[in-house]
Amino acid sequence: MLYTNHLLVSNAIALPIMAQTNTLNLTNVLLLNLGVLLPDIDEPHSVIGQRTLGLSNIIKAVFGHRGLTHTIFFPLALFFISALLTVKFDALTLSYCLAFGATLHILEDSFSKNGVYWLKPLSKFKYQIPLYTTGGVVEKTLGVGAILFIYYCYSQGKLTTVPDPFLNPAKLSQWLTAIFPH
Predict the structure, then answer these.
(1) Residue 12's pLDDT is what?
(2) TM segments (predicted)?
(3) Which residues lie below 8 Å from residue 42, measured CB to CB, with a gap of 6+?
(4) What are phi and psi of 136, to 5 degrees?
(5) Residue 120: phi, psi to the nearest 5?
(6) CA 177 vs CA 6, 11, 61, 77, 174: distances in Å
(7) What is the pLDDT of residue 170?
(8) Is 80 exceeded by the pLDDT of residue 174?
(9) How far apart are CA 41 and CA 63, in angstroms?
(10) Nearest by Cα to 1 from 50, 55, 47
(11) CA-to-CA dists, residue 113 to 6, 119, 125, 127, 138, angstroms
(12) Using the 8-state DSSP alphabet, how is residue 66 labeled?
């Protein structure tokens, strides 16, 4: 799936869930979308790969495309690593959003004709429901459908945001002091 459609489909799935769980704010959506893009860090021509060329080339050389970053272990690792960084700030939701985005990416790739190996290296079973070809008409239709669904949810008032603690100057100052003590 192309990155634009990954972002559209993932947001169509995640935004209503985030609204229902009172976690829909700018910071969480940004981290969700970073998580959506991160599994393709194993492809130097991807949007995230072009911005991390040295790292992207190494990951592709070692694991290949749709290798380790397209297994369930990648979002789990993202969650635990980011949780270690955010637990001090009582901001575990950030880790959930990052890992949820990566999980959605892998789930969406499971519906491509290429599929993914969710449990690699523990299993060589390829999970795939060949619904679309990357860049094909079905994928583009999913992207348009996602836009329409997001618009519908927004127009019905279903995407209510909550205050973003990271945009609160007092809280931001507190976190910066914790990171960079005097």
Answers:
(1) 98
(2) 67-85, 129-152
(3) 49, 56, 59, 60, 63, 64, 65, 66, 67, 68, 69, 70
(4) -85, 180
(5) -60, 135
(6) 36, 33, 40, 27, 5
(7) 72
(8) no
(9) 11
(10) 47
(11) 15, 18, 14, 10, 11
(12) T
| Amino acid making up residue 73 | F
Tokens representing residue 141 in the block: 């239709």
Model confidence pLDDT, tens digit, residues 125-160: 999 999 999 999 999 999 999 999 999 999 999 999
Residue type, 126: K
- What residues contact residue 4 under an 8 Å CB cut-off, 6+ apart? 143
Q: Which residues pair with 132 in a beta bridge?
A: 112
Cα four-point dihedral sign 92, 80, 129, 46: positive
CA dihedral of 68, 81, 101, 74, whole degrees rounded to 10: 10
The Cα–Cα gap between 36 and 6 comes to 7
What's the token pair of residue 73? 């272990």
